[in-house]
Amino acid sequence: MRQKLAECLSERPLALPAAPSGALQPRHPQRAGAFRLCQESLRAGTSPVPLGYVVPAPVSRESIPRTASPGTAEHPRPSGGGCGAEGGERRLLPALAGGARGAPAPGARARRSPGAPCSAAAAAAMKSLCLVTVGVLAMTLLIASISLLVAHVFQTVVDLQVKQGTVLKNGTETFEAWEDPPPPVYMQFYFFNLTNPLEVLQGATPLVEEIGPYTYREYRPRVHVQFLDNGTKVSALNPKTYVFEPEKSVGDPEVDLIRTVNIPAVTAMEWTRSTPLQFATEVLLLLYQESLFTVRSVHELLWGYKDKLLSTIHVLHPEIDPVFGLFSKMNGTDDGEYVFLSGETNYLNFSRIVEWKGKESLSWWTTEACNMINGTDGTSFHPLISKDENIYIFSSDFCRSLFLVYDSSGAVAGVPTFRFVPSSMVFANTSVNPANAGFCVPAGNCPGTGVLNVSVCKQGAPIFLSAPHFYQADPKFVEDIEGMHPRKEYHETFLDINPLTGLVLQAAKRMQVNVHVRKLPEFFETGNIRTLIFPGMYINESVLIDEASASKLRHVLLEASVVTGIPFVIMALGIVFGIVFIVLACRSQRITEESTEEERSPLIRTS
Fold first, then answer.
1. Peptide bond into 70 cis (omega under 30)
2. In whole angstroms, what is the distance from residue 364 CA to residue 396 CA?
3. Beta-bridge partner residues of 416
4. What are phi and psi for residue 108, nearest 5 degrees?
5. Where are the alpha helices (DSSP H) in 89-211?
6. What angle do CA 251, 256, 258 make, to 5 degrees?
7. Contact criterion met (CB below 8 Å) for 403 and 413
8. pLDDT at position 93
9. What would the mean pLDDT of 537-565 be, rounded to a whole number?
10. What one-character-per-residue DSSP string does 515-539 give?
11. Cα separation of 416 and 387, whole Å?
12. CA–CA distance, 109 with 175 (Å, rounded to integer)
């Protein structure tokens, strides 16, 4: 009780000596009033009055000494209400050393000194204001971010910038990259060497061995570029030049020999069978000792050699070229003038071909749809490509247009891409895709799934095109030739395109050249050979974006990502402020709950 009484009289414990009678006595007589009050309160079990509080007016004015008390001339009393108003109450000084003060009357209420409630109220108001501000800010940011995401505001801005920048216009980076593509292009040639020619002539299954690659660097700038129709169209030639790359090849093309089908001889036999020239052709074959198969160097098979049989036919038919080669007169030459749309009026028409060799359509096939020239040349595409659309390409090598479909998503050199591959419907049988009936020439003569007869555009030579190793073709073509091993990763044509810009980052055009051979009773050179689609060679024309172009593209995509990511940044800020709001609200609630009932009750209770 001594300690409690000491704490009642002062903020610092007082060491009070015990009186002889055992009762507690005050050390200073001037504190007698406060001492008695504390002692009575402790005996009664009620809360004593802490120092520094005031008691209401029941104590008479005369009972309080006038020395240095509030309300006198020395200490003028504030007027009015609020934190400083007395409201009819008297002040009890914090220290009783300055003189005795009137003791609070029993049953009276006490309140804190006028300065303390002001500070506490201001702090509480400030806390409430901060809490409300944080909450409102969090809600505003979240609503704004969601609205921007739903409306695609920033994505629309990026798309508009991309559309405006993807136009063939002189002096722009887009035009310069289209005119002279910076990534290196490589052409790889693989040949099938026949190892059992005599057995094949007797009806056996051909056994072939793949030899390659023979790699060439391909240069394909666009030249003689002209802008037409107020910049809405662009015409250009696209010559291709091939330079041999020994370090990327398996051998010397001028030395390595390949045994394959004698295409000039087979072509001559097909031309003249059941005609008056049949006998003359047979005599020439015997004279020049031509057979169904021939042995030539890789260089001759690719870039051409002067054939004796064709030279003789050329005398009678000047339109027949005496030089034969699978890529004869294709090194350093172009395949005709193209007219492209610039994309000025519609970004979807960027680099789309509208004319080739002065014509808006082909004339080789039997239906209008099959003769259409659709799409680009495969080197560039319009921006903002989606997974649901078909990519159209016109290829003079295939003598037709074809379309590719979305296959998968990936990345090349750190740039996101969509991979597109030829649809299985492109070379499907007419039973699967009736629209392909227009490619059956003559009408009704359809070779089967996965193979296209292009003899109509190859001067009548019995050339059939397919994917390498008859990938995705009818299984009968694979079974007819021993040595065919189709694999998706090696034999599928694909395009890896960045969907935002439409730029090709990686691509591979893979095409196999086959010869249709069969037994011709009119020519004994054919022996008893089975009817076959015989593989001669296939190409792998590939491109991979260079590091300089990839770095520039990554920078462009980063800027686009920053712009489109602004709503997510705003949302993140809103979430952070929301967390701060929750923490502050919970903390305020915890402080309120931790206060006791005694702390929230009046310090002096009325009876």
1. no
2. 12
3. 411
4. -85, 160
5. 115-151, 153-165, 173-179, 197-201
6. 125
7. no
8. 37
9. 89
10. EEE---TT-GGGTTPPPEEEEEEEE
11. 13
12. 90
Please name the residue that has the structure tokens 């086959």: 514
CA 601 to chain centre: 65
Residue 98 tokens read as 């300055």
Q: In 3-state terms, what secondary structure has residue 295? A: strand
**How big is the chain by its Cα radius of gyration, in Å?**
49
Alpha-helical runs (H) found in 274-330: 278-287, 298-303, 308-316
Do residues 5 and 39 touch, judged by C-beta distance below 8 A? yes
> Which residue carries 């969090």 as its tokens?
138
Residue 490: burial class (beta carbons within 10 Å; 0-12, 13-18, 19+) = middle
Q: Are 226 and 235 in contact (CB under 8 A)?
A: yes
Check pLDDT > 50 for residue 550: yes
Contact 194, 260 (CB under 8 A): yes
Name the DSSP letter for residue 48: P
Q: Which two tokens stand for residue 42?
A: 């402790």
**Contact (CB, 8 A) for 286 and 310:** no
Q: Which residues contact 47 (CB under 8 A, 6 or more apart)?
A: 41, 598, 603, 604, 605
CA–CA–CA angle 449, 454, 455 (5° rounding): 125
Render 205-259 in DSSP notation, one character per residue: PPBEEEEEEEEEEEE---EEEEEETTTTEEEEE--BEEEE-GGGSSS-TTT-EEE
Report how far residue 556's alpha carbon sits from residue 421's, in angstroms, rounded to the nearest whole number. Answer: 26
In this structure, are strands 323-324 and 305-306 parallel, antiparallel, or unpaired? Answer: antiparallel
Task: Give the model's confidence band at 149: pLDDT under 50 very low, under 70 low, under 90 confident, else very high.
Answer: confident
| Beta-bridge mates of residue 355 | 339
Confidence at residue 505, expressed as pLDDT on a 0 to 100 scale? 95
The first and second tokens of residue 229, run together, are: 């129709």
Contact 421, 497 (CB under 8 A): no
Q: How high does pLDDT run on average in the chain? A: 82
Report pLDDT digits (tens) over 456-505: 998 889 999 999 999 999 999 999 999 999 999 999 999 999 999 999 99
pLDDT confidence bin for 595, thresholds 50/70/90: low
Highest mean pLDDT out of 73-87, 99-113, 241-255 = 241-255
Is the backbone peptide bond immediately before 206 cis, with ω within 30 degrees of 0? no
Phi and psi angles of residue 404, each rounded to the nearest 5 degrees, phi first: -120, 150
Q: How far is CA 374 from the centre of its chain?
A: 27
3-state secondary structure of 326: coil
Q: What is the pLDDT of residue 72?
A: 46
The answer to whether the peptide bond before residue 213 is cis (omega within 30 degrees of 0) is yes
Query: Torsions phi, psi of 419, nearest 5?
Result: -95, 130
- The H helix count followed by the E strand count for the chain is 15, 19
| Pairing state between β 241-244 and 293-297 | unpaired
Give the pairing type, strands 494-497 and 415-422: antiparallel
* DSSP helix/strand/coil, 486: coil
Q: What is the side-by-side strand order in the sheet with 233-237?
A: 223-228, 233-237, 338-341, 353-356
Q: CB–CB of 481/205 below 8 Å?
A: yes
According to DSSP, residue 111 is labeled B
First to last CA, the chain: 23
Amino acid identity, residue 75? H
Whether the CB-CB separation of 294 and 265 falls below 8 Å is answered with yes
- Looking at residue 139, its pLDDT comes to 86
Distance, in Å, from the CA atom of 305 to the CA atom of 40, rounded to the nearest integer, reads 130
